[in-house]
Design a protein that fits this description.
Distance between the termini: 37 Å
Radius of gyration: 24 Å
Number of helices: 10
Helix content: 55-70%
Strand content: under 5%
């Protein structure tokens, strides 16, 4: 029986942040305006390119890898903009620094949660290897072991990951910080805050897509409203509506397993399960052989794509961490004080990827 579709969450609106950033009468030099325009047009282009060509791609590991790749590109773009603005850290407002450092900690925690889930899914490959090994032997005892390994695989992928659950309140906290501090007497600061707003919105939305994909639930999928004054607003709205609609439609009628590659493996397991459970005769032996081959191909594709996604998540983690460390280093050099509430992020013992 299909689950009833949950009502679509209303758009999360935080007012118009640019009313604070660019009040009436504000002036940007041609150089600053060009930098901001280039950044926003590039962001729009990245969103258009990331929009899936087909709805079947949304809950697919290969598309999720592209999404994480896009995030890395967007965060590289903001670093390039900061360099081009020639705005030294000593000119940054303390509030900007505190918000940046606090948000970076939260992003690192989210990355660790996603990495933990990818690693958990990868561990399931061991059960599939046991299934394939035992199916290769025409022995009733081996078939019993294969059947047991299938049970363990299904139990494993159906289990909950506490770390993944912990990232939901973190994302809610990030959503509450999308409103921007009032900028006074700093044209460069206004450009920086407007660009960072774009990075935060897109990053948060993609993270919510990942959380929904991994958890098999659209409850925490976010709908973020962007002011029309952003050059990337239309591209973001088009991207968000397409992806969110497809995920919600899928979860309203679908199985527990959400990721397409995982579902392909599960389909093979379901086909083999009753045959192996009831015993294999000579006629069914050929069916088992073909089904085992299908399972091997699906399991290998799943493993390879999880490896690629793990690499991209680790790359994003390192990018966020490097940017944070660079800011902290510059603060120490400049002798500025950071809020007592912000501390260095300790990654000792953390494994990502």
């Amino acid at each position: 029986m299909s689950r009833p579709q949950s009502p679509q969450r209303p758009f999360i609106s935080f007012g118009n942040p640019f009313r604070m950033i660019f009040p009436k009468g504000s002036y940007l030099s041609p150089k600053l305006l060009d930098l901001l325009t280039t950044f926003e047009e590039t962001l729009a282009g990245r969103l258009k390119k990331l929009k899936p060509a087909d709805k079947e791609d949304v809950l697919c590991l290969s598309w999720m890898t592209c999404a994480m790749e896009t995030l890395c590109g967007i965060h590289a773009d903001i670093k390039t903009l900061i360099t081009a603005l020639e705005l030294p850290i000593c000119d940054w407002d303390d509030k900007w620094i505190d918000v940046y450092l606090d948000n970076s900690v939260k992003l690192l925690d989210i990355c660790i949660a996603f990495s933990s889930e990818v690693s958990r899914l990868k561990q399931g490959h061991l059960f599939l290897q046991c299934v394939l090994h035992n199916l290769g032997n025409a022995c009733s005892n081996q078939f019993i072991r294969a059947h047991s390994s299938m049970d363990r695989w299904r139990q494993h992928i159906g289990s909950n990951n506490p770390r993944l659950g912990n990232c939901f309140p973190i994302m809610d906290s990030l959503a509450r910080t999308l409103d921007l501090p009032k900028i006074k007497n700093s044209a460069k600061g206004k450009v920086l805050m407007r660009a960072m707003y774009g990075v935060k919105v897109v990053t948060l939305h993609i993270c919510s897509i990942f959380a929904a994909s991994f958890s098999g639930s659209s409850k925490k999928l976010m709908d973020l409203e962007v002011p029309e004054t952003c050059l990337w607003a239309e591209a973001f709205a088009d991207f968000q509506i397409f992806v969110n609609t497809e995920i919600r439609n899928t979860y309203s009628i679908k199985r527990v397993i959400s990721l397409k590659e995982m579902e392909d493996v599960d389909t093979c397991v379901k086909k083999l399960y009753p045959i192996v459970e009831n015993g294999v005769d000579c006629v069914e032996a050929a069916v088992v052989k073909k089904s085992a081959l299908d399972l091997e191909k699906s399991a290998e594709k799943l493993s390879e794509r999880l490896d690629l996604l793990a690499k991209e998540v680790d790359g994003f983690f390192q990018m966020v961490l490097t940017g944070r460390d660079a800011l902290l280093c510059n603060l120490r050099i400049d002798g500025n004080n950071v809020s007592n509430q912000v501390i260095d992020y300790n990654v000792e013992g953390q494994t990502v990827g």
